[in-house]
Design goal:
With about 120 residues, this protein is mainly β. It is built from no helices and eleven strands. It is globular and about 45 Å long.
Length: about 120
């Protein structure tokens, strides 16, 4: 089992910034992928950004140039720096961790609310 604890959400004005953190603990493998997803009311959960344990990243197009994902492997922690926030970024943000050991093991955090006011 892997436990994920998120922090850093909140209310911010249009154009503002927030930094999300997610600390993983438990049965963590050295080769893994961590990332952030979000879900707005009435919409499906969508990928925001992911980062491998080797440092490769991928972002959804709408956040490229505004959001930066990073990680500290020694702390098993992933971060999401969000700048130039827009009202359409408002959602519950979920941390995700997965690794593959003969099968995929997929874990989710409890979610943290990000609200951007216009």
């Amino acid at each position: 089992q892997v436990q994920l604890v998120e922090s850093g959400g909140g209310l911010v004005q249009f154009g503002g910034s927030l930094r999300l953190s997610c600390a993983a603990s438990g049965s963590i493998l050295s080769i893994n992928v961590m990332g952030w997803y979000r879900q707005a009311p009435g919409k499906e959960r969508e990928l925001v950004a992911i980062i491998t344990s080797g440092g490769s990243t991928n972002y959804r197009d709408s956040v490229k140039g505004r959001f930066t994902i990073s990680r500290d492997n020694a702390k098993n922690t992933v971060y999401l720096e969000m700048n130039s926030l827009k009202p359409e970024d408002t959602a519950v943000y979920y941390c995700n961790y997965y690794h593959i050991n003969y099968q995929k093991y997929d874990y989710w955090g409890q979610g943290t609310q990000v609200t951007v006011s216009s």
